[in-house]
## 1
Amino acid sequence: MKKPTFKSTKLFLKVLLKSFKLFFIAGKAQLILLLFFTIIQGLVPIMIAQSTRTILDSLNILKDSSLTFAVVILVITWGFWNLINFIINPLSLHIQGNLTDKLILSCNLKALETMRRINDLSTMEESRFFDEQQLLEQELAWRPVNLIVFTFSFIRGFITVLSMMVSLIPFHPLIPVLLLLSLMPQAVQLYRLQQEAFENMVERNPLSRKMQYWSHLLLERTTFREAKIFGYESYAISKYQNLFSQIYEKSSADRKKKTVSTLMFFIIGAAGSTACFLWVISQFRTNNLSIGSIGLFSTYIIISSQSFITLIQDGALLYDTCLFMDKYFSFIDRKPALKNGTIKLKSISSIEFRNVTFYYPGTDHPALKNLSFKMEGKKQYAIVGENGSGKTTILNLICRFYDPQEGQVLINGYPLSSLEINSYRTHISMLFQDYARYELTAKENISISDTSKEPVVQKINDSLKNSGLYNKFSTFADGIDQQLGKKFENGTELSGGEWQKVALARSLYRDCSLFILDEPSSSMDAISQAVFWKNISEYTKNKLSVMVTHKVSSLKNTDCIFVLKNGSVAEQGKHSQLTEQNGLYSGLLTAESMESVTSDHADF
Ligand SMILES: Nc1ncnc2c1ncn2[C@@H]1O[C@H](COP(=O)(O)OP(=O)(O)OP(=O)(O)O)[C@@H](O)[C@H]1O
Ligand SMILES: [Mg+2]
C-alpha cells in the first residue's frame, strides 16, 4: 500500500488551490457568501456549548427556582445560535447547489475546449485517451458536487474542531493533544486507503470500459440488429458479467479493508476520549470544577471527537476528489500534439508529397512508403488502388490529422507544418469515407459544415438538389427542419445511400478551394452513381479536387490519376494513358467490368 507522502500532500494542496480557482470563476459573490456561512456554521457548536455552560453555571448559583432576567437572556442567546444553525443550513445548501451547477458547467466546458485544442487523430486513438475520456464522462457529472460539498464541510469541520480544541486547553493543555493523537492513526489510515481505492479505480478503468462496450453492443441500434441475427446476446451478457465480477471483487475488497480499519481505529479514538473524561472527573474535587464545566467538558469531548472523525472522513473524500481533479487538470492541460505553424493562406492551389513515409502510431508497417506526387491548379485528381493501399491515409496527411515520419507535405510550396492549422482547414471541404450521421435536423446536417454564418436556405436547397435529395426532402412535413435519425423525437431514418447523399450535400455546402472526396458514391444506387459522376465536374468546378474511388471507369475526364500499391505510386496519368498500359490500372478496370458482367449474370 502506498503511504501518503509529502509529494502527495503537496499535490493535494496544489490541486485544492487550483480547484478553488475554479470555484472563484464559477461565482465570486456566491463563494464569499458560502465561506461566510461555513465559518458561522463551524462556530455554532462551540457557541451553543458555551451558552449551555453559562446557563448551567447560572442555575447552579441561583438561590431559588425562579428564573432571573439574566438567565432568560442566556437561554434566548442559546436559542439564537440554534436558530442561526437552522437558518444557515438551507441557505448554504441553496448556494452550494447553484455553485455546483456552475462548477459542473465550467468543468465540462473546459473539457470540451480541450477537445477543440486537440488537433490530430493519433491522440484520439490512444487507449490512454479513451481511459481518460471514460473517467471524465463517468465522473465529471458528480465529482464537482463532491468537491464543493466536501471542501465546505471540511472547512466547517476544521473550524469546529479548532474551536473545540482551543476550548479544551483551559482544562489541561495535554487534553487536546491526547485527543488528536488517539484519532490521528485513523486519519492516516483513511487517507492511505482512499488513495489506494482511487488508484485501483483508475487501474480498473480499462476493464470497466470493456464491460460497458459489451453492454453497448446490446443497446446500440446497429449492433443490436446483428446481435439478434447472430444471437450473441447471452455471450455478450456473460462477458459483461465476467468483467463486472472482476471489478467488483477488487472494489469490494477495498471497501472491506476500509470498514475494518475504521472500526479498529474508532476503538482507539473512543479509548482516548474516555481517558480524557476520566481525568477531568478525577479533578472534580481537587480543582473545584463547576457542574457546568464538567457538562461542558463532556460535550466538548463528544463534539470534538465526532467533528474530528467527520473532518477526517470529509478530508479523505476531499482527497479522493482531488485525485480525480488532478486527472481532470492533466486532461484539460493537454497540449496539442501537432506543433502549429503561423502561415495563413488565402486558398489552396497545390499539394505536393515529397518522399513521404508514414507509419500509423503503434504500427511497424508503413502505410505510405517514400511517396511523391504533385497536384496543382483547379484540376481534378483521383487516387485509386486496392483496399489498404494507403488512399485514405494520403487524405489524412493532406488534412494534417497526422504528420509523416519522413519526407514532407507541401501546400502552395510551404511545408504543411508551417501553416496555421485551423486557418488551413477552413479552405478544405471533405466527404469522408466513414462520414458522420448527425442525429440533427436536415438543415443542421448540411449547414454544420459552415457554422461561421447563419444557414442559407437557398444554398442548402442547392446542395440537396446537387446530391439528389431535394425531392425526397420536399416530401417531409417539416421540410429541411425534419429531424433525422431515430435518437430524438419525430426523427425519421434514412437509407444508407441517402445518408451518404446528406454527407455529400454537407461537403458541397461548404465554400472551399480544396475538395476531397473519399469513396463518395460507395453506397449509392446505379442511377444515383451515374448522376453523381455526370455532375462531378460541376461539384469540383473552380477548385483543386482529390477523389478516392474504386469506380475507375468513371475517371475518363479526370485530369490525373494516381494508382497506389502498398503505399507508393505505381502508375500515374490520364485514364486514356493508363488504359493503354497493361498495368495495375487496366487490371482494376477489367476487374470492374468483370464485376458488372458477373453481377449481370448473378443467377448463374
Ligand atoms: N488509424 C490507423 N491505425 C493503424 N493502422 C491504420 C489506421 N488506418 C489505416 N491503417 C492501416 O493503414 C493501411 C492503409 O489504410 P487506408 O485506410 O489508407 O487504406 P485505403 O487505401 O483507404 O483502403 P480502402 O480502399 O479499404 O478504403 C491499412 O493497412 C490499414 O490497416
Ligand atoms: Mg479508404
## 2
Amino acid sequence: MFIGHYAVGFAAKKWAPKTSLAVLFGAAIWLDIVWPIFVMLGLERFLVAPGITRMSPFDFIDYPLSHSLVMAVAWGIGFGLIYLLTENDTKTALILGGLVVSHWFLDLIVHRPDLPIFPSEMNVTGVVHKYGFGLWNFPGWELLIEFGLFAAGVWIYAKSTKESKPWGNLGLAGLVFFLAAFFIASLKMTVPNNTNGLVFFGQLLTIIFLFLGYWVDDNRKSV
Ligand SMILES: [Zn+2]
C-alpha cells in the first residue's frame, strides 16, 4: 500500500482541521518512516525478490520493530502522546494515533502473510504467525481499492479546505498527480537489487512528499 496511506492522511484533515497535512501524512506513513532506519541499522531485513507478488517485488523477511501490530499500537500511542503533550489537544492526538495504527491494517490487505502481531519472533510453540491477505497478487482489486481510497481521501480533503494563497488549488492538484504518477511508475519500474539504496531513495521521496504536504496545506485553509 502506498497512496492508500496518504489517502487516510488527506481524509483526516476534516476531523483535524488545525493540523498540517504533513503531520497527518507523517502519522499515516510512520511505520514506513521508521522502517528504512531499522533496515539501515541492520535491525530489519528485506530482499528484492522479483515475482514474489505480482505487484510488489519485496520480500519482507523480518520487520518486527516497524511492522508488528503490537509495535504499530506502541508507535501510535507514542505519536499521539507527543502531540498531546505539545499541543494539548486530545481529539487530534487520538486521530494521529489512529492514523499510525491504520497503516498496519492497510498493509494487511495487500501484503503476503509477512506481518507479525508481536515484535518478538519467539513464542511458546516456536511457530511464528504472520498475516497478510495478499492483494498484491490481484492487481485489479488492489488498484481498485487503493485508487478508491486515494480518490475518497483527496475528495474529503478538497471539500474540507479551500485555497487561501495563490498556489492552494494548483499545488494540491500537483501533489495528487505526483503521488499517483509515482505509484503507477513504481509498478512499472525494474527495482534494483540494492536494499540500502532503495530505503535511502524511499526515505528521500518521503521527505519530499511530507514537504509538499506541508506546502500545499499552508496554501489552503479549513472551511
Ligand atoms: Zn508499511
